[in-house]
Amino acid sequence: MTDDARRRWMRRACTAALAGAGGSRGATPRAATIPYPAVVRGVPLSFPRDHGAHDAWRTEWWYLTGWLEGADKARRGEPAGVQITFFRARTQHDPADPSRFAPVQLLFAHAALALPERGMLTHAQRAAREGFGLARASRADTDIAIGEWSLGRDGDDVYRARIVDASLEIELSFRAHAPPLLQGDAGFSRKGPRESQASYYYSRPQLRARGAIGAAGRRLAVEGLAWLDHEWSSEILDPSALGWDWVGLNLDDGSALTAFRIRTRDGATLWTYARRAEFEAPGSNAAGRPGWHAAERDERTVHFEPLRHWTSPRTGVRYPVAMRLSIGARNFRLEPLFDDQELDTRPTTGVVYWEGAVRVHERGAVVGRGYLELTGYEGPVIF
């Protein structure tokens, strides 16, 4: 298949997914003929099953980001950022259709390297319908693939990602030292004023990353810290919402900070959430169980304040790439590794967004690193 033919096919696949699964930027959701299940408060998450795919729900993603450095400590060089995201979308095609060609489940993937020497993202994307050996998403555990792109989890709680593309290569392992961090109310994460505007959501912060990355004919052994999010839902955003600002931050004290705001079309904040969690080893808490425990949680006094904007020379979209994040009495300053970390994924998921590696400053010192995601600045995101 030629590059042009592949792009045309991806656009057709994306259109089919968004028309049947409820939409992305600029799409108009149509009345569902096959119901999607709701996200319900109080449903306990169960692992390893909930590491896998949830076919009945409309939208799902596994999202990995990290900061990497050269594994040779004598030749560290500049840091690099990595982002890998796999998406699953259930269309409105009748799942009872016996045809193997029925596009019931569609898979998409984005991958990017933030290399300071290049000054802009090196990225690639994929799309395929499930089946025919082209793409898969296991229901039992994390095991998702599109061709040579894959993300899986083994019995030692190590995630392994492999991305092979003409523009970049990524082969990394991500080792977890703690159980999943359940976001919101035990994994029930509100995204708006209505109870139905929610997702099932957990994170894997402070993952130890190791492996190799490559771009422009150069391959580098790397290690660092990463973050994984896994979410699934049938309805997330309120009709008045435009998009969101989100951060997942690995702090140097070993804790993890999640924060987001949902923005309305007039620029106001519709919904916010923040949580800093610390890992407690067995016997160090009253329950006697290891896991993440909330050190701070706030859903009312969370503020994202733009400090500096950057305008993309390709799309003309203006993003607030440097932010002040205020949570109660604490103030963090988020500064990008570099400004041009825009992703144009219109050939697959139909969205232009900014997904960038950022340093976290507090009281003049760097206290952590992570990723900032900015959506809805190019146009409404509908999920």
Superfamily at the CATH H level? AttH-like domain
CATH topology: AttH-like fold
Give the overall silhouette: globular
Main pleated-sheet profile:
13 strands, antiparallel
Instruction: Look at the helices and sheets and give the structural class.
Output: mainly beta
How would you spell out the order of helices and strands?
Answer: HEEEEEEEEEEEEEEEEEEEEEEE
What would you report as the Rg, rounded to the nearest angstrom?
20 Å
Average pLDDT confidence is: 88
What is the percentage of strand-forming residues?
A: over 45%
Uncertain runs: 1-32
Helical fraction equals under 10%
With helices defined by DSSP (H or I, 4 residues minimum), what is the helix count? 1
Architecture, according to CATH? Beta Barrel
**Cα end-to-end separation:** 31 Å
Number of domains: 1
In the CATH scheme, the class would be: Mainly Beta
Find the count of extended strands (DSSP E, 2+ residues). Answer: 23
